[in-house]
Amino acid sequence: MSAGAAGVDLAALKALHRRLDGCTACPKVVGPVVHGPALDTDVFVLGQAPGPREGAIGRPFAWTAGKTLFSWLEAHCGAGEARVRERLYFAAVARCFPGKAKGGGDRPPSKDEAARCRTWLEQEVELIRPALVIPIGALAIAQVLGGPRPLAEVVGTSHRVKWLGHRCDVVPLPHPSGASTWHRMEPGKTLLEKALALLAAHPAWKRSVVGDKRD
Ligand code: SF4
Question: Is 132 part of any domain?
C-alpha cells in the first residue's frame, strides 16, 4: 500500500481511476469520463456532472461555473484555484456530460445514471475516507443529505452524517452555474457566505487546504 500523509492509498485510487475512465455503463450520456486527479487528501468535493466543455479539457469545473466556484473559495477560504485543485478531491454525481435537455440547457443526470455512478463513489469514499464533504448543487446535496431539500434549509449549516458507510462533516454549497440566481439574491447570498465561512473554519480545510502539512 502506498498511503500518504492523509492515509489515502494512491496506487489503489489510480487503479480505480483507470477502471472508471473505461466506464460505458450509461448509454445516453455524451461523455467522456471526467474526474479530478488521485490525491492524498480528506476533503472531498461532489459536483453534479461535467458540462459540455470539461470532457475536452479533462478537468471538473473547468469552465464558467468553475470560475465562479474558485472565486468564492479564493475570496472567503484562503485558497485559489491552483491550491484548491492540488488539495481537494473532485468527484461528481455523474462523471460524464449527460447531454443537452430538450429546452436547451444541460440535462441533469437521471436517477439511473446517478445510481450507476454511485458505485464509483462508494469505492472512492472507501479509499479516501473524507473528513469533510462539499456537495455542490441541489442534486449533489440530495445524494449526501437525502432529499431533495430546499437550499435555504441546508446551505449555511454544517451537517454530521454517515455517507456511504463513512462518518463525515458536510458543508453544502449552491451550484455556481450562471443559470442560477439563488446565490446572488437573499437569503442565498448570506447563506453562501455562511457556508464559505464554515469551510474556512473547518479543521480539515485548515489542515489540508490552507496549511502546509497535516497533523
Ligand atoms: S456517468 Fe458514471 S456510471 Fe455512467 S458511464 Fe459515466 S462514469 Fe459510467
Answer: yes
